[in-house]
Amino acid sequence: MAVFWVTECIPLAVTSFLPIVIFPLTGIMSTNETCCCYMNDTIMMFLGSMWLAYAVEQSGFHIRLALYAIQAVGYSHYKLLFAMCFTTMFVSMWITNTAATTMMVPINFALLQVFEDQGLLKIYDTGVDGERIASDITTCYFCAATFSATIGGVGSLVGTATNLVFIGLFSRMYPNAPEYLSFPKFSAFAIPYMLLMEAFVYLYLIVVYLGYLRPNSQAAKRAQITESGIEAAKAAVTEKLEKLGRITFWEIIVIILFSGAIILFFCRSPQIFTGWGDMISLYFDADDKKFVKDSAAVMLIGFLMLLLPSSMLFFKNFTAKDHGELPNKGIQSVLIWDKVNDIMPYSFMFLLGGGFALSNAAKKDYTDLNGRIGLLLKNMKDLPNKLIILLIIIFTVFTTNFASNVAVCNVISPIVMQLAQEINQNPLWYNIAAGFSSSYALCLPVGTPGNLVVQSSANIPTSKMIKAGLGPTVSTIIISWLCVCYWAPVIWPDLHNLPNWIE
Predict the structure, then answer these.
(1) Can you say how many angstroms the Cα of residue 447 is from the centroid of all Cα atoms in its chain?
(2) What digits encode the pLDDT tens for the residues 62-81?
(3) Tens digit of pLDDT for each residue in 153-164?
(4) Measuring CA to CA, how many Å separate 390 from each of 135, 226, 273, 408?
(5) What residues are paired with 126 via a beta bridge?
(6) Long-range contacts of 276-281 (CB under 8 A, 24+ apart)
(7) Lower CB count within 10 Å: N or C terminus of the chain?
(8) pTM recorded for the entire structure
């Protein structure tokens, strides 16, 4: 067994990960090489964030976290929905939105089934043609899951591919700009912004579906749960936790490595003390402050996840006194590469790379398409800056409900950055507005895979999803506008100035 681990796991880990762990640390690059590096850095961050997410999923820790949150908060509809919303949001900060949504599907069904068995609600209603469709309370729970996953994705740099896209596009268009969108600064803006949006989503759902502030409404009457229903829900959650058993060595290692990744992200170049990335730059006498990037950290953690064993049985190889005490089967690593390779969305790398290629082709050195579009939009110069930001947010949110979030971001972000340049505004400001807004597909099933997951799982009609998503969409637009206009300049004071790094 020890031989298997040494001959199979270590070489795979080293050959797969070591070159790309070292890549961000090698050499100071010229301008063209720097542009190439930004694209590679973004793609490596995407790959690394997916590997972190898959390690959490494979260990099952995200399900344990969700069940413990429900158990801690309580079992009324208000408490259950709160626990489900904010747990999904938090999990989605670190794993893919689709995975976070999918995680909640069986948990939602289990809880709703308990209440239906008690005669407290119906999971399905009958449609016009006699088909089974989700009831209002089912629509509430399942739409809350996908909406919370979408909002949670904007809370951290690795939360969704869209974040990496607009950060990469900005770095590619303005390679001489300071590192405004580092992990600490991104989180300082995004986390309060995310929490505010999630609070309004939760408030909308409990008002519309649970009758909050409307005690005499039918929704309020349907939302009441008897004491026996609460006890049955407790029993269902307890049963699921008992099936999971005690926390495993695998989950503990994932928690340690995941926490290590977050600490490395925050401590690379925090600007309030000398980070590990700054130390490496000083050691190599690198003038480029962006010499070491977050991709180095995420690749190192990915390397360790592939290298370390997922079970303590591995250590029997060192303590066994005879051959019979050795493990009789292979021991998987923390990140099971075969499973990752089967489900890894490699096509997204082409989408990311294609977007960067289009962005580069539209620059002044090539077709100058961005410049021409900017000239057409130059008439907007007379409009107030805050109105332009609002129009960007509204247009992006509307568009992203009908198309891929990543594709929308790839198209709109370069245009709005060029617009900012033409009307003497900071391109970072408009890029933030468009980049964050391109994630908010909250109305239509086609907007994001998470919406399709809940629609297909719970048979939610499109009309019901639109009704559930309309309020969150409006609140998201308003909160995004307020945060981009008033909170973003607090985090990035340079937004009010026309920078000298614009080419």
Answers:
(1) 15
(2) 888 888 888 888 888 899 89
(3) 999 888 888 898
(4) 35, 45, 36, 17
(5) 132
(6) 280/25
(7) C
(8) 0.79
